[in-house]
Amino acid sequence: MRILHTSDWHLGRAFHRVNMLGAQAEFIGHLVTTARERGVDAVVVSGDVYDRAVPPLAAVELFDDALHRLADLGVPTVMISGNHDSARRLGVGAGLIDRAGIHLRTEPSSCATPVVLGDAHGDVAFYGLPYLEPALVKDEFGVEKAGHEAVLAAAMDRVRADLATRARGTRSVVLAHAFVTGGEASDSERDITVGGVAAVPAGVFDGVDYAALGHLHGSQTITERVRYSGSPLPYSFSEADHHKSMWLIDLDADGTIDAERIDCPVPRALARVRGQLEDLLADPELARHEEAWVEATLTDPVRPAEPMARITERFPHTLSLVFAPERAPDDPDVSYARRLAGRSDQQIAEDFVAHVRGAGPDAREQAVLQDAFDAVRADETVREVAR
């Protein structure tokens, strides 16, 4: 069976001040064309179809167009909701849409009810695991403490239990939206940390032939059978080195995987340039970035006059201007920035406690801080779902 794996469309999202709806529509056309020309048997979309719980009308219209084009093509499609989606809204009409070959899986309780598709070698069971917010689904899965690994492991136990009841030789594909250990994150993914831990081990997907992952925006291979497709378009300059693509997966009769990356069309390359303004304007090595979307970091000790107007003379598609003045190593601003670099909210809070009272928090106080951060994130998720 030939499967086209994609995720993280984020319909309705802009890239800085650039409206990406046209580029997203071009991607949908590319997806449909690829499915038709490459003889795809199934399309899987592993979450974050939309960028927010209440997407703009233009994004909803584009999604509607995508559904109609996939249904007209006659290629079955399995989709799950991601952490950016409203599962309830995305799942409206799922029963009716199912009849057109578009299978929306947004309910955690249905994770062990697969979409079963057949080929010349037998059945392939597609299990859709929507994004599982631990605080909201821990009771559904009977776990004592809310955590990503616990709820995802419980969901996968249900998947394996169902798979064990099926005919021998039934192959399996799991769609999941999660941060799996070994994956490389970017700046454009929403934080899903709970209890100080966001990542789950790849071993949680043992027992299935292929895990089609969503959430991380870089296409990457965690194991031969566990892969991220990544987002089809860039959504932050941290993705400047990404190779935007989809996975074309051939699942053989014995469960063997053959994977091919299919490039996605992107409107412009991304580039990050750094240095003093006059050097950036004169450096011949930077000519290759003149038509790219640019993030320019200026290191001038004193902020230059009209920096954006001047930088756009050479790089007309500059979207982000960052100031990082070169300073002496003992400058207090430098040392403060270094103390904060790469530190989590929890670590920064613990540093603050140590600063104001002379001693860091003990284990009980650390737990209180962590519970507070988890409660804020859970509350944000509940409010997103309720919108």
From TrEMBL:
Keyword presence, S-adenosyl-L-methionine: no
Keyword Nuclease in the entry? The reply is yes
User: Where in the numbering of this chain does the Calcineurin-like phosphoesterase domain appear?
Assistant: 1-217
CDD domains associated with the record? MPP_Mre11_N (cd00840)
Q: State the source organism's domain of life.
A: Bacteria
Keywords from UniProt, A to Z, are: DNA recombination, DNA replication, Endonuclease, Exonuclease, Hydrolase, Nuclease
- Return one GO MF term: 3'-5' exonuclease activity
Task: List the InterPro entries.
Answer: Calcineurin-like_PHP (IPR004843), DNA_Repair-Maintenance_Comp (IPR050535), Metallo-depent_PP-like (IPR029052), Mre11_N (IPR041796), SbcD (IPR004593), SbcD_C (IPR026843)
Q: Where is the Nuclease SbcCD subunit D C-terminal domain?
A: 267-355
Query: What Gene3D superfamilies does the record point to?
Result: 3.60.21.10
User: Tell me, what is an example of a GO biological process annotation in this record?
Assistant: DNA replication
Q: Which SUPFAM superfamilies match?
A: Metallo-dependent phosphatases
- What family does this chain come from, according to its entry? Belongs to the SbcD family.
* Annotated function: SbcCD cleaves DNA hairpin structures. These structures can inhibit DNA replication and are intermediates in certain DNA recombination reactions. The complex acts as a 3'->5' double strand exonuclease that can open hairpins. It also has a 5' single-strand endonuclease activity.
Q: Provide the assembly information.
A: Heterodimer of SbcC and SbcD.
Checking NCBIfam families in the record gives:
sbcd
Q: What is this protein called?
A: Nuclease SbcCD subunit D
Q: Which species is listed as the source?
A: Streptomyces sporangiiformans
What's the name of its gene?
sbcD
